[in-house]
């Protein structure tokens, strides 16, 4: 996302704003996180019913590639980075009051730390569900005490107020693909497999009774289908170590999530506006859920609707170019969601 405070007020074009998704980048983010309903008509802005995702606001919102000053991993982020989080939290809480949901949703943000060169991870959470006083943030090192390169993951420990259970929320940004087709995915695959050296991500270590949850989300720059053959002829899989630890995902193999720079009219949707299967959300729960987990990559283009009319109609069909160009102002990746009770 490469999100900075200066980007939040970036306006959308006149071809995009009539559909109810917002007039600025911040409007768009708030509409997505805070319930996805147009407050004027109470009609969902996006159609995600086919993914079994509700219209409930998010209890945890993770931002990958949050812009900050500095490059020393684990250090405090810059003031501008904190201003971005404050601005988002304020807007989300205002939206909760507008929608009369303030009794069940109130947002705060975890302390962010530098994870790479002028980059961090932002974690915004519902402090009616999670205990603000016990929230702990750390950047993760391997078992030799070294940061993962080029960007180390950031973990936020959130304690559920009702149960005392701890959820470890991890945001990561793997290195990009590089080189020829045969070894193209080697950099992100090697990075993901190095997660096996990070004790804090191992669900079998330091279990906190009675229940514990791990979530590792972000730009993996590859998918579970990605692999390469090493010098000994072994096929190295992207998610091998996560699978060995029992992590699961609700994102089907090969689900594309990154936007193209421009529409490829030779392909049908969503391939005409999506290019690579890069993003994922791996989870490991040691408790049973009553519903879900549901989720996946949210299609903000194919699922976009004109919510200013009731019933809503597709916004993609008349304005695919405007939707792509304006959505890329928010991020060049589609968001992911995981929902459970």
Features:
4-stranded antiparallel sheet; 25% strand; 17% helix; 6 helices; 6-stranded mixed sheet; alpha+beta; 341 residues; Deoxyribonuclease I, Chain A; single chain
Task: Give me a quick take on this structure.
The chain has 341 residues and is of the alpha+beta class. It is built from six helices and 20 strands.
Task: Describe this structure as you would to a colleague.
The chain contains six helices and 20 strands. The protein is of the alpha+beta class. The chain has a single domain, classed as Endonuclease/exonuclease/phosphatase (Deoxyribonuclease I, Chain A), CATH 3.60.10. It has a six-stranded mixed sheet, with no helix packed on it. A hairpin with a 5-residue loop joins strand 11 (227-229) and strand 12 (235-237). The mean pLDDT is 92.
Q: In CATH, what is the homologous superfamily?
A: Endonuclease/exonuclease/phosphatase
Cα-to-Cα separation, first versus last residue: 28 Å
Strand-pairing-aware structural class: alpha+beta
Query: What's the order of the H and E elements?
Result: HHEEEHEEEEEEHEEEHEEEEEEEHE
Number of E-state strands: 20
Radius of gyration: 20 Å
Q: Give the count of helical stretches.
A: 6
Could you name the CATH class? Alpha Beta
Task: Present the secondary structure layout.
Elements: H1 5-8, H2 25-33, E1 37-38, E2 43-44, E3 60-67, H3 79-98, E4 107-109, E5 114-116, E6 119-126, E7 136-139, E8 154-159, E9 166-173, H4 186-193, E10 212-219, E11 227-229, E12 235-237, H5 240-244, E13 248-249, E14 258-259, E15 274-276, E16 279-285, E17 294-297, E18 305-306, E19 313-314, H6 320-330, E20 336-339
Parallel strand pairs: 9-10
Antiparallel strand pairs: 1-2, 3-6, 4-6, 5-6, 7-8, 8-9, 10-16, 11-12, 13-16, 14-15, 17-20, 18-19
